[in-house]
Amino acid sequence: MSYVDNIDGESERGQWLDLVKHSQVEEIYLGQRAHFQYGCNEANTRCPADKPPSLALSHCCMNELSQGVKTVMRACKDHNMICELNDGTLLGSLKFEGTLPWEVDADLSVDSNNFTAVRDILAPYLKSKNLSFRDSKTYYRFYTPMGWFIEIFSISSTDTSRLSKAGISPTRVLLDGEYVATPESPGLFGRNRYGSEIYQHANHWRKRGGTSSWQFYEAGKFAECVKPGHQSCLDQFVADGNLRFNQNLLRG
């Protein structure tokens, strides 16, 4: 978070571009006078695959992943396929109603009856939505333009399918402003998946040198920041709870 004081006269969006890129912020507030927003390239907040685990993702970066997930979930619904949030993507919706600020991918599950249809029907359709496709045989991946991958794996029967057959409304959770399908009792599902410390934060297992999300890892702390004092350092935040992180803003 940075502050800009004592700004006299009118301000134009372009005059802040150097500061925006240097500080990697996507919005500037100048009190009641102006509110400027900047894109990923302007703020230099694209999503490099080798981003250090100690730095939080920018709003722009998280938005592309959540938009990609919502696009896939809408496509599933429109094509009568049953897909649900899973793993860290479900955890992000439970904690922040969005994407985890330390996320590296997205995870969705699909009813086994629909698995091959993801490749045969969904993949060609989503190509028109700028999502490329890769078939890894045991799971599928859709890639966003920035390189995020949305992984889809098959399970024998989703809770959405089971509840629908029983005449019960399936569970939905809020993901970045849109309700999407999730396993029944998502809080309990997350607790059973990640343990009683579900609201204690931890860097993604891929960034901790792990080989699987099923490995045990210590929660409740973030990696030491490689850029001490940088506004996106995760270790400046309390690593326990579900309070949303503030956006990167410059205030005047």
How would you sum up this structure, described in words?
With 252 residues, the protein is α/β, with parallel strands linked by helices. It contains 7 helices and 11 strands. It has helices at 17-23, 40-43, 59-78, 87-96, 115-127, 159-165, 186-194; strands at 2-3, 27-30, 34-37, 83-85, 106-111, 132-135, 139-143, 149-155, 172-175, 178-181, 249-251. The strands form 3 sheets. The protein has a 5-stranded mixed β-sheet with strand order 4-5-8-7-6. The chain has a 4-stranded mixed β-sheet with strand order 1-11-2-3, with no helix packed on it. Strand 7 (139-143) and strand 8 (149-155) form a beta hairpin. Helix 3 crosses helix 5 (115-127) and helix 4 (87-96) crosses helix 7 (186-194). The protein starts with a strand and ends with a strand.
Task: List the defining traits of the structure above.
alpha/beta, globular, 252 residues, 7 helices, 4-stranded mixed sheet, 5-stranded mixed sheet
Task: Summarize the structure in short.
This protein has seven helices and eleven strands.
Q: Estimate the helix proportion, in percent.
A: 25-40%
Measured between the Cα atoms of the first and last residue, the distance is 12 Å
Shape from CA axes? globular
Number of strands: 11
How does the helix and strand content classify structurally? alpha/beta
Q: Largest sheet at a glance?
A: 5 strands, mixed
Pick out the low-confidence regions: none
- In spatial order, strands of the major sheet run 4-5-8-7-6
Q: Assess the beta-strand content as a share of residues.
A: 15-25%
Helix count, DSSP H or I runs of 4 or more residues: 7
CA gyration radius, whole angstroms:
20 Å
- Mean of pLDDT: 86
- Written as H for each helix and E for each strand, in order along the chain, the element string is EHEEHHEHEHEEEHEEHE
